[in-house]
Amino acid sequence: MIDYIYQGGWFMLPLLICSILLISIVIERFWFLQKRLVVPNGVLNNFVRLVKTEKISITQQESFSTTSSLGALLVVAYKYKDKPRMSLEEKISEKAADIKLDLERNLNMLGIIASISPLLGLLGTVVGMITVFANINLLGTSSNADFLASGISEALITTAFGLIVAVPGLVFYRMFQHKVDKLMINLQNQTSTFIDFIESL
């Protein structure tokens, strides 16, 4: 593997950086997009129980808000529960937009990596081919075929590596985007349930 990296030339450096960023972002998003951190089970029921008993303190609200995204939305809904529904939903939408932005953190970077990696690989190949054909006249006729085959093989390494980075990058980007959409729908449904509850009080 190390030999291939050396053979690919200096265009392998940005591709290696892209691969490291890709792995880092994937690990980070896998951790922070866990359902238990965004929409934990039982949070809505616990919050409703405290509201019913009117024993939800400021400290408890802060705890709910910092523990999960759902808790943060429920606290906003509870804080503005006396406002008209339209105003309440506007406040919740503002908070939901912040939460979605946080859930999508680094996904744009993941998409950029998936887009530019094959282009960087192709650029490395083109530069490698130019070098091969520029130097082919320096060799004798008998050596041209071997030199050309060797040069093309090395030039194609960057394209292959670019695709190796881009394909999983695109897969993970789509997967995380879908996961964010599902989490946001779950948040919206549970928050709507809580709004209906506080309106019935």
Inertia-based shape: rod-shaped
Q: Can you give the mean pLDDT?
A: 86
Relative strand content: under 5%
Helical fraction: over 70%
Biggest sheet, in brief? none
State the low-pLDDT regions, or none: none
Record field, number of beta strands: 0
The topology string of helices and strands comes to HHHHHHHHH
Number of domains: 1
The class by helix and strand makeup works out as mainly alpha
Determine the oligomeric state from the structure: single chain
Number of helices: 9
Distance between the termini: 66 Å
Describe this structure in words.
With about 200 residues, this protein is an all-alpha fold. It has one domain (about 1-200). Helices cover about 85% and strands about 0% of the residues. It contains nine helices and no strands. It has helices at about 1-5, 10-30, 35-40, 45-55, 60-65, 70-80, 85-105, 105-135, 140-200. The longest helix has about 60 residues, at about 140-200. The chain is rod-shaped and about 90 Å long. The model has no long low-confidence stretch (mean pLDDT about 85).
